[in-house]
Amino acid sequence: MKPAMIWLGKTIEFELSGCKLPIQGEVIDVGEDIMVVYGNQRYIYVPLHHLQTMHFTRSEENTTNMNVPAPDPEMDHNNISYRKVLMNARGKFSEISIGRRTLHGYITSIMNDYFIFYSPLHQSVYVSIHHLKYIIPSPSNSRPFAMDHQHFPIQPSSISLSRTLDQQLQKMVGELVILNLDYKPEQTGLLKNVNDKLIEVIDAEGCTRFMHTSHVQTLHLP
């Protein structure tokens, strides 16, 4: 039995790397690389590699609860895995967390180490699979921002997709880009070069800044 299986049916509180606030809920499923928590009437899918600390709530420390809530009927929980969750969530209105910021929209494409997330506020966002903190798919009848579907058409990116995020960065050299959802203004500017996993960005004042590609959480065009 997987060590994490003892969490099933337990109410836990946990912290994720890069997230300010802890999350609390009941564990309803665990895979090799993902945990599913039910809290606030939502199913939260959490990649285990972001789990920093976790503890049972005080009321659960000495109890064994076998009444585990049923999984989301719209998601396939058979041999659940992180990548399989992303595949099942494709096309569903979802909330995703990159840590300090959350986005609402749809997964439209999944590549080797990143996926395309269409947001009505940011359009097509390239999201590193490694940096996704959690995803919360909504029921299929959910409407983003209570908008009618005809007022929210999903616009596919006009840029062809590469297999890896590093290759996609190479393809976008010469474009004005916004990195990591503009959390730091100096990470927005002209993508000048990508070489040996170092990207070169020129900001609005003409200053050149460098970043390792492993720190690119998201990328989108203005």
List the helices and strands and how they pair.
Layout: E1 11-16, E2 23-30, E3 34-39, E4 42-47, E5 51-56, H1 82-89, E6 93-97, E7 102-110, E8 114-119, E9 123-128, E10 134-137, H2 165-171, E11 176-179, E12 188-195, E13 198-202, E14 208-212, E15 218-220
Antiparallel strand pairs: 1-2, 1-5, 2-3, 3-4, 6-7, 6-10, 7-8, 8-9, 9-15, 11-12, 11-15, 12-13, 13-14
Q: Any descriptors?
A:
single chain; 222 residues; mainly beta; SH3 type barrels; 3 domains; 2 helices
Question: What does this 3D model show about the protein?
Answer:
This protein is mainly β. The chain folds into three domains: 1-88, SH3 type barrels (Roll), CATH 2.30.30.100; 89-145, SH3 type barrels (Roll); 165-220, SH3 type barrels (Roll). The protein is 7% helix and 39% strand. The chain has helices at 82-89, 165-171; strands at 11-16, 23-30, 34-39, 42-47, 51-56, 93-97, 102-110, 114-119, 123-128, 134-137, 176-179, 188-195, 198-202, 208-212, 218-220. Strands 10-6-7-8-9-15-11-12-13-14 form a ten-stranded antiparallel sheet. A hairpin with a 3-residue loop joins strand 8 (114-119) and strand 9. It is globular, with a radius of gyration of 19 Å. The mean pLDDT is 87.
